[in-house]
Design a protein that fits this description.
Helix content: 40-55%
Subcellular location: Cytoplasm
Shape: globular
CATH architecture: 2-Layer Sandwich
Radius of gyration: 15 Å
Organism: Atopomonas hussainii
Number of helices: 4
Number of strands: 5
Largest sheet: 5 strands, mixed
Distance between the termini: 36 Å
CATH superfamily: Beta Polymerase, domain 2
Keywords: Cytoplasm, Repressor, Translation regulation
CATH class: Alpha Beta
GO cellular component, one term: cytoplasm
Structural class: alpha+beta
Pfam family, one: RsfS
CATH topology: Beta Polymerase, domain 2
Strand order of the largest sheet: 1-2-5-4-3
Amino acid sequence: MQTEQLVELAVAALEEIKGKDIVTIDVREKTSVTDVMIIASGTSGRHVKSLADSVMMKAKEQGVSVLGSEGLDSGEWALLDLGNVVVHVMQPTAREFYDLERLWQSTAQSREQHQSQGE
């Protein structure tokens, strides 16, 4: 499955279970680990787990292997590795604390500034 199709599948799975503040960040130019990160919030530990389960179920239905998962037991933060796409589902307090959007977006801006300066 192409990266864009996988992103659409994961976002649809998150929206179906009422994921909040869903953000996709293209990280192809920033890391070799994955192509796209999807970040979403759940309202409780149970909601975070349901969101992650929904993404895993939809991925498996389409023949996509879940290469790894973390945090499904705690419910504060779940991570799903779908290869070209990594999905982070967090409760708002964890999302604010880790601030992945700022981290990855500032990395992109920093690299763009260095490239524009000829570095």
